[in-house]
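tool=predict chain=A
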Amino acid sequence: MSKTIKFYYDFLSPYSYLASTQLPALAERVGTSIEYKPIHVLQLMEKVGNQPTTVLCEAKLNYAFADLGRWSAMYNVPIAPNPHLKSIDVTPLLLGALAADDAGLIREYTTTVFAAYWTQQAEFRDSAELLKILKDASIPEPEEIIEQSTNLTDRLEANIAEAVEDGVFGVPSFVSDHTLFFGNDRLSFLEDELSST
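tool=predict ok
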């Protein structure tokens, strides 16, 4: 029986976006599946006593922007830091991912929202903007996804609780067979682990 990769992510994380562009091909190479686990990373950090040091430390933030450019070039994927970061409420986007999961569309939804967030610099002002983004990406029944998402707060909390149980302290994180790998730069370790089992 093939192992599953739990992919813990938050749309506000550019490294989660970068990892999301590589993970499907990795999973195909090692013959496993991905279980998408959207979480609110700041709430997770509060629960486990972690701090968002990249935001708090200006020198680290400056380095991160340069580092993101290097990874973007290495992966040959676009990235454009979003100037609206401080005004975006990520919670509706995460809840939408859970509704998309119920519709069997979480991978497509996640890819679409990450692209809007980190390549198209979307503002995500309201549900109407999200609806347009989903429609433009030809996501089926986007109205229903947005409508259903408002009922899934408990599911989002359950994902955060599961992440705590899995030892997760930030995103992106990948868990397979109770083994945790943290960070976009650990994907090769994850692949090695899955290839050897």
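The longest strand covers residues 4-9. Residues 4-195 form a domain with the Glutaredoxin fold (CATH 3.40.30.10).
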